[in-house]
Design a protein that fits this description.
alpha+beta; Beta-Lactamase; six-stranded antiparallel β-sheet; 18 helices; 19 strands; rod-shaped
Length: 722
Amino acid sequence: MPSAPDSPNAAVPEQTPFSRFVLTRSEFLHERVALLYRLSGEDTPMILLVASVAVFALWGVVKVSLLLAWALWLIAASVARYLLARLYRRVQPAKDQALRWENIFCLVSATLGTGWGLSLLLLTSQARSVPELTVAFLLSTISMGLPPSLAPSPKAFVSFVLPILAPVVALMFSSGGEVNTATGLLLLVFTGVLLSLYISAHRALMTTLADGRENAKLLELLRAAEKSVTAALREQETIFETASVGIALVAEGKVVRCNRRLCEMLGQTREYLTGKPLALLKQVPARDHSSPTPGHHSVAAGETALPAEVSQTRNDGYRQWLAVESRDVDQGNALAGCIISVIDITERKNAETELLRATERVDLAVHSSALAVWEWEEARGTVYLDAAWPAMLRTEGGESHVKPEELASLIHPEDRERFKAALIGCLKNSGLSLSVEFRVRSTTGEWIWIHTQGETVERDATGRARRLVGTNVNVSKRKLAESELFAALQREKELNEMKSKFVSIASHEFRTPLTNILSSAELLQHYSATLSAEDQAKLLQAIKDGVLSMTALINDVLLIGRSESGKLKFNPVALDLSEALSGIVEALRFSHGAKHQLEFKCDLEQRQRKVDEQLLRHIVINLLTNALKYSPEGTCVGFSVVESGDEILLSINDQGIGIPAEDLPKMFESFHRAGNVGSRPGTGLGLAIVKSAAELHGGGVTVTSKLGVGSNFSARIRALPA
């Protein structure tokens, strides 16, 4: 027979019907023995009642000794069975002792049956009349009223019945006669009927026990399932109440149930929300199950909601953002409602707002600072440039991805190697950032100075750079300012040099005339009485020449100062240029040209011109004076004037000492003198004055010279016809 499952959760084996040839099942031995002892003695009252009625009816019909023996035996049997039942209940034996206790019961039953069987043999051995035989049969039958309580154990039934029936049946058949034989056959038939009833009762008991065990197993499974369900419900309830998400069951637009978190989110009590519609659902679009697009159904009326983010203001004035989503409890049953889940996303929304504002601030800062953001990623193989880059190149466009070779082609050839070295250093050295300035060509063809700053933000396991991020800044204005500052510093340096030269020259140029003036004044002071009128005139002329020399030097310095500070004004007036130049030449012939030949040629068709007479005199006098000063005596100095439209070209040629090649670039700088001038007097201001005067006329001055051969100075001025 199949055995019982070992655990409550085991599946209940399928029970097969009893075989009609199988009387009992050993697997129920413990239950049968327990039932045997429990039923033992329960039929005693009924047996005693029937026995009393039988004694009353048979009193005076049969021997009194038979009735008394039967009563004593019934009492003894009842007491024995009662004691057995009490003993069993007291001991409560284990299952493995069931067979032992069954054998004990069988032994007691066999003893009782044998005792009554032998009593019948002794008391009815002389009885041959039908009444006595009938009474013996009835007494045996009543005695066999005990077997129904023996139904749990066929062994106990046989142990009890067989010792009673066997002697009586044997007595009937051994007594002979038709009556005895008929009575014996009747007892056998009755025994058969009793056995059949017993078998039916026993099989019914086995079925009941099997059903009971199966029911017990089912009950265990049911209890286990109930525990699981209870645990699941308890777990579900715990999850429902402790969830960080607000949850509500909504049916027909009203809250059926909600958890604590939802109440906290909405700032309401559970009692207030239960049975009422959720106001926030009015902002949520519903699903239209018949259409892929959202419908216009009312979620508050119970429709399934689309995932949505809504905002609301609580009663306490707190404004919050909520993410709402729903699921149908049963898609086939709209009345079942839906589960609404609500998440407080206020912090996320605030963070998004702050992030948006920060992004706007960064974009504004980048836009205001004219920064162009770039990013290089090895996997992509291109360089990302934001929309500020085209603006730097003086073109239109937005964000773009370009190849590194395209960017390299825009870099100035002189800056490419420097840029490449800085980039390679950043890629190879994790502690080195990219910082380099270079020029790129704009769409208009001009060169723009760019300062690139970048960092390596991602490297692989070997340290190889995978991603660089940085910015480009147009620093052309700064570069221009630096150039201007450098030029200013150079000018400051030159000015300092000029000051040094001026001090040196002034100390020399002032000392000589002052010495002459002082010596002439002392001679006049001490020896005027002995000096002739001619000598006194010479001394006075020396004083005058010294004063004029010093005055000329001071005027030159003041003129250069006004020119350097931009205060030298250009005041053109209508002038007969040929006549004015001839006057200057004649004056120089008188004062300086006694030892030189001074040739003057003036070829002007339009003699009336607008020029600054004072500046023109500075140009001509300084150039001619220098030519005469540095030319040997007896040589010729040529001065020619030609016109070309509105321009006048003044050319002075000499046969002097010439100018060294290394001094030519600096000849028009203030206080600069060639290295081969020797002891010839001069301040180095004349040519600087010439250059400033020519430039104020809208022209310039150039020089060509060969050492030991001579020099040519050409001053070009713009002089409009008067």
